[in-house]
Specification:
- The protein has a two-stranded antiparallel ribbon with strand order 1-2.
- With 366 residues, it is mainly alpha-helical.
- 77% of the residues lie in helices and 1% in strands.
- α15 runs antiparallel to α16.
- This is Polyprenyl synthetase family protein.
- One of its GO terms (biological process) is isoprenoid biosynthetic process.
Length: 366
């Protein structure tokens, strides 16, 4: 049974081999397509690989007690885990376009890289338009690749009924993420039209469908389904995965406002400039006096916010009690996730690793 570092290496190797097979196809069309291939590799290098790890340990939580050789177990689950990472990369490329993010993991985001390419060569038209269009295509390409890699993984001796279940769950995950992303951008632009009392519940809904399910719950279920999990085992993975996914995204929301740019790879307060209507913001607005709430509403979403304005908004949010409340919500969801593993019909070794991952995703600085 490989350790975490070895699992990540196996996923990286699988992604690398897959991209090699696809690069020959796109490069045979025209040499000018080279940036699509090189940027694909760059966006799939690094990262914490949380989704791949949850997929593997979801698999092992069901399969761990069975007497099968590791070599027979690894290929399909590593392929499925790698497909998840390709899907994640596609989502990040599209998300950065929507949010107008300049950086991803401390380097220029995809659309900014394509903009730079346009400027370097002095091509016609606006560099921004080229950057957006090319990055959309890159995201689409990676999205298609994720399906291709999943199909390869499931063709590797996987029982037909299990393969159907995995495909169905992967498709459900994809639909939920897209729906959640739509709800996210809708909330940023339509929040004034909704009832004041609904802001928090709408922000919580975005967390569930844009992030929590696809970051933790779906990878666990994909692994469990691949291993032929029983209803009881799959229910245990669901009950563990959803609250942990919520805690994961709540931590992400705090980092988006208060994170250290040298660690997160994105400017501190980036979510404030992007106008994210998160649970953190909903809680702050609920507690602030009307004058402070108006200032928050006026500044939130201004891409030109300077460092002093960011610090002022950070202090306003903290003084409202919202930061402490989100920390309490994280702890509560972590507790719920942990309790879901108590006496769960899952392999002990995998349960121990899932508990370790619980700490990693909920108490992180990037």
């Amino acid at each position: 049974m490989p350790g975490t570092d070895r699992l990540i290496d196996l996923v990286d190797e699988r992604i690398g081999r897959f991209l090699e097979t696809r690069e020959s196809i796109v490069l045979s069309i025209a040499p000018e397509i080279g940036p699509l291939a090189s940027f694909s590799r760059q966006f799939l290098s690094g990262g914490k690989r949380f989704r791949a790890l949850f997929c593997y340990w979801g698999y092992e939580s069901v399969e761990g007690a069975r007497d099968r050789r590791e070599s027979e177990r690894l290929d399909a689950v590593i392929g499925t885990a790698s497909a998840l990472e390709l899907f994640h990369a596609a989502a990040l490329v599209h998300d950065d376009i929507i949010d107008r993010s300049d950086l991803r993991r401390g380097a220029p985001s995809a659309h900014r890289r394509f903009e730079s390419l346009h400027r370097e060569h002095g091509w016609d038209g606006r560099a921004e338009d080229f950057g957006d269009g090319a990055a959309i295509l890159l995201g689409d390409l990676l999205l298609g690749y994720s399906d291709d890699l999943l199909a390869e993984a499931l063709a590797d001796g996987v029982d037909a009924a299990r393969a159907v279940g995995v495909r169905r769950e992967f498709g459900r995950m994809r639909a939920e993420v897209i729906a959640g992303q739509y709800l996210d951008i809708l909330e940023e632009r339509s929040w004034r039209a909704g009832a004041e009392d609904d802001h928090l519940s709408r922000a919580e809904r975005v967390i569930v469908y844009k992030s929590a399910k696809y970051s933790v719950q779906a990878p666990l279920l994909l692994g469990g389904l691949l291993a032929g999990g029983t209803l009881g085992q799959l229910d245990a993975l669901r009950e563990f995965g959803l609250p942990l996914g919520i805690a994961f995204q709540l931590r992400d929301d705090l980092l988006g406002v208060f994170g250290d740019a040298t660690v997160t790879g994105k400017p501190s307060g980036d979510d404030l400039r992007e106008g994210k209507r998160t649970v953190l913001i909903a809680l702050a607005r609920r507690s602030l006096p009307s004058s402070a709430r108006r200032v928050l509403d006026e500044l939130l979403g201004d891409p030109e916010l300077d460092d002093d304005q960011i610090r002022m908004l950070q202090n306003t949010i903290t003084s409202s009690g919202a930061t402490a409340e989100v920390e309490r919500m994280i702890a509560l969801n972590v507790e719920r996730a942990s309790h879901a593993l108590d006496d769960a019909p899952l392999a002990d070794v995998a349960v121990n690793r899932l508990r370790e991952l619980t700490r990693s995703v909920s108490d992180r600085v990037a």
